[in-house]
What does this fold into?
Amino acid sequence: MIPSLRGHASHPLKSQRSCVVARRGMVASSVPIASAAGVETLQRGGNAIDAALAMAATLCVVEPMSTGLGGDLFALVHSASEGRLLSLNASGRAPAAATREAYLERGRDHVPMRGILSATVPGAIHGWETLSRRLGALPLADVLAPAIRAAEDGFPVTEMVSHYWSLLPSVLSNDAARETWLPGGRAPAAGETFRCPGQARTLRAIGKGGARAFYRGEAAEAIVATSQAEGGFFEPVDLANHESTWTEPITSDYRGVTVAEHPPNGQGLAALVGLNVLARLGDPVSPTSTLDWHRRIEASKLAYADRDAYIADPEHADVPIEALLEPGYADRRAALVGDEALDAPGPGLHAGDTIYCCAADEHGNLVSLIQSLYMAFGSGVACGDTGVILQNRGAGFRLEAGHPNVLAPGKRPFHTIIPGMLLRDGTPFMPFGIMGGDIQAQAHLAFVGNLVDVEGRQVVLEEPDLPVDEGGTLREALTERGHEVLGPGEAVIDVFGGGQAIERHADGTLAGASDRRKDGCALGWWA
It folds into this structure.
């Protein structure tokens, strides 16, 4: 059972929510309406794959700053019928005309964080169809029905979604974006009903005509027309030729449990590198001790140094996955960790806003799915009245010649989003994920407990005044070890992420958990 520790009133790691338990199915997402869409889909004969897709599509409507029809998707799926763990890369590629030289000619020394030049081809819609065709039990049109209903009839905006929405009006950079997501010139208040008829129309077209209707239909025409108007690089062929890619999960063992991650171009590899280092820093100690925090911070620093140096699209660069996961490499990296905080370390090899949802069903299917526009409202550029806002994943590219992640036509950028899955004795039992941009690999490493954000000796703590076993506060104890401790910002608590998890017990009982940092919940289907 996922421990909530709610029976220990004074425990510093006590959760604010209990787990939800059920037998026939379980879902968890960051907005209750989306979780309800997942349960509804299970009750109509869908499986966990259908439920996850229903939630992902609904979240495009009800949490629009975090995900949308113009975003990307990664998934890990344990398929009961195939008896194996699968991974799907549904991330988009750079347009054919988006060369490094074209950006340099425009006076750019980096890919901008916003605007049309930060956009890559949307990948999520093709991912929905790919998952549905291979593993789903219901037609895609049925799976998308709850999302269409929410977009067309409207939905009450939840509290945290309203909070983030209200911070973001300036991000929406063209008239189409402002007209769609700022009705009356402002973000909707909590509890206020919001409708997006253009999104409903696009979703209905996808349900009827599949991914082809998106990549060759009205949405594609609007994307190309918007790109041309904004000075971007999209052409019809960039959308028409897009495909998702089935890949093989990457794994590493951590204290008797196998951790599975999606391979690059996502940052799941960094989570495994960090866990390998952490496992070599000594036996587990109390999670409320300074030593435990220090170890996790240092392991994260080393993993992120490797992430930034090596992770890229493996179709365009040689990503040294085996070398980074080799036990001897972890030994050498762990040897760098001492009692004092490391300055920002370099990589170790010397050769040559996001949503997450998970679902489980009575058949044994488990789904870990993550989908994103990258930063809040992505590029900020919407495409006509289609309800499509383009992601800004192109900002993950580099423009330094020779870097593995340098921009190139048709190349996928480095991605922060990573779905996770835990296995015991070779059997998957827990899909999990934590949204939150760069923090995700570290959050996977930390999985239970408070999270930190690492840069050099600086570390941002969610609860800097947390008591530690050695006495005093966490801030004081880490400062003594040479860390430069910062407190959290007041405006955006989302810097520490938020996640969901589902655990399958040996007897088939399902336990679901949803992070207090989001509006969402876990919901089960018992009978």
